[in-house]
Design brief:
Elements lengths: L1 H11 L23 E3 L2 E12 L13 E5 L2 E3 L3 E3 L5 E8 L9 H14 L7 E7 L3 E8 L2 H7 L11 H9 L9 E8 L10 H10 L4 E6 L9 H5 L2 E2 L4 E2 H8 L3 E4 L2 H16 L2 E6 L5 E4 L1 E4 L4 E5 L2 E4 L7
Parallel strand pairs: 6-7, 6-9, 9-10, 10-13
Antiparallel strand pairs: 1-2, 2-14, 2-17, 3-4, 3-16, 5-14, 7-8, 11-12, 15-18
Helix pairs in contact: 2-3, 2-8, 4-5, 5-7
Length: about 325
């Protein structure tokens, strides 16, 4: 049953959301990674974030500072970029019934406002989506964050929660955006009641198209008594994985938002990381399938974060 479910979701994922649409249910081809061709060589591009032990982004690194490894075999870096550019954000807000508890939705709206405060008008682009059982587009990609701000009152909690399915589907349209620095920012209480996909399956889908997932976990009132670790690590019972695992596997991160200070810090960290991503390209393995990937940094006391692998195959070779 799991294999059949994954196949169905692969077809569903090919649908492209539009403002006000209910996307889950359109059919097409399964999503494929976006490859780059240079002089006949099939390249895979990954984005990497480097920070110090205090969590500050590290700038000024070059390609010789990085090490790529696939199944124990080192990979030469063919292309390397470190210039700061604009970003593309798909902001995905939980509008399921559990967000109707006192204070949760307003805390979620406030988290989005903080993210928007770091968007540079005309340079960055942002879209607003919501989900319960289905994914809905409230505002298509725009370089004017005030357009998204005006849509926030439309977030109305109701229904079951397909959190993991919504994350996977929200990542799909980002593959065709012009900006290389892109991400899904998920604002949620972490409750999932009806997803077909599990966190590991969603992380693979997002990793295939190099879209990091950032999770902002809403924890207010009595929720905060459960502690910081639980807040960032809401568990999916079917896979024993957490939202924090999902974020980490895609090269993103998880944050807690319950106080103004936490919400401000999460928004600032997310946008700062995206603006300072290192873009690295290497030659793809010609063997079709999933290829686990690890990336290291030669300098001491630095931490690097990137997606955990990439997919190759007949479909990806035609991109």
């Amino acid at each position: 049953m799991r294999t059949v479910a994954i196949g169905i979701l692969a077809l569903v994922m090919a649908g492209v959301w539009a403002p006000g649409s209910q996307v889950l249910g359109q059919a097409g081809q399964a999503p494929t990674p976006k490859a780059t061709f240079r002089a006949g060589v099939d390249l895979v591009r990954i984005s990497a974030v480097v920070h110090d032990r205090s969590g500050r982004p590290v700038l000024g690194l070059s390609r010789v500072d990085f090490e790529l490894d696939e199944n124990g075999q080192p990979l030469p870096i063919i292309e390397f970029e470190s210039e700061t550019t604009g970003v593309s954000l798909a902001v995905l807000v939980d509008a399921s019934g559990s967000m109707n508890l006192p204070g949760r939705m307003e805390a979620a709206r406030e988290a989005v406002r903080h993210v928007l405060s770091w968007i540079e008008e005309g340079r960055d682009e942002v879209a607003l989506l919501s989900f319960d059982k289905r994914l809905r587009g409230l505002q298509p990609f725009t370089t004017d964050p005030s357009e998204v701000q005006r849509r926030l009152p439309e977030l109305d909690p109701y229904g079951l929660t397909s959190l993991y399915d919504a994350i996977a589907e929200a990542a799909r349209p980002l593959v065709d955006r012009d900006r290389a620095r892109r991400a899904v920012v998920v604002v949620t209480d972490g409750v999932d009641t009806s997803s077909v996909l599990s966190p590991p399956e969603v992380s693979r889908i997002a990793s295939e198209i190099d879209v990091p997932v950032y999770v902002v976990a809403i924890r207010i009132g009595p929720d905060r008594a459960e502690g910081l670790a639980d807040a960032a690590g809401v568990t999916d019972a079917t896979s024993s994985a957490t939202l924090e695992d999902l974020a980490r596997w895609t090269g993103g991160a998880a944050f807690v938002a319950g106080t103004p200070a936490e919400t401000s810090l999460a928004a600032r960290r997310i946008l700062s990381e995206l603006r300072h991503q290192y873009l690295i390209a290497f030659e793809a393995n010609p063997r079709a399938g999933w290829h686990p990937l690890s990336i290291g940094i030669r300098k001491k006391n630095l931490i690097v974060r990137a997606r955990g692998g990439y997919m190759t195959g007949s479909n990806s070779e035609s991109q």
